[in-house]
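Example 3.2
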Amino acid sequence: MKHIPIIPSIIVALAVALMIALGCWQLFDRLPKKEAFLAQLATNPARPLVAFPSIPTDKSLLYRRTSAFCLEPTSWKTEGAGRFGWRYIAQCRTGAEGPGFAVEMGISRDPNAKPIWRGGEVVGTIALAPAKRSLIGNLFTTAPDMLMIVADSPPPGFTRARRPSLDSIPNNHLAYGVQWFVFAAIALGIYALALRRRWRDTPNAV
């Protein structure tokens, strides 16, 4: 008589159930929420100009037109812009009313360029600020994503930064959901093959 081992079967069943639950979560929870969020963001470029938030973490403001006043840039950093060169991002001081804000002023092909900009009113589009976190860091961080302004007017000698768009936000939840179901099917297939080999090697087991 062919017996099915109890403990390994329970472990496999729990693992498969977890994978199926994760697939359902991606398809029936995460995917609809992401689609609704993207639909909201798609309307933002046409909405009225809004003041840049003093605590720039609300991603529902992405792609809104915005303005802020920079008393002075306190630091600059560069980010790669592919074949276009380097993005120059200033950290601005706003005074006692807030922690400041970041603004992408423009693009230069020179990684050592010195932007001639001393601050003032900034008008542009709200985008996600670059976050230098590893894949593992993203899994465990609790820090919110920060927003910045992509300025309409670059400093002299710089080209205007590309206006951020909805295309930069991935929507992979359908693929993730299907992936979990595939993992569950693979796990069941491997376990079925393992049982078949066990029964073949011990044909007289009782």
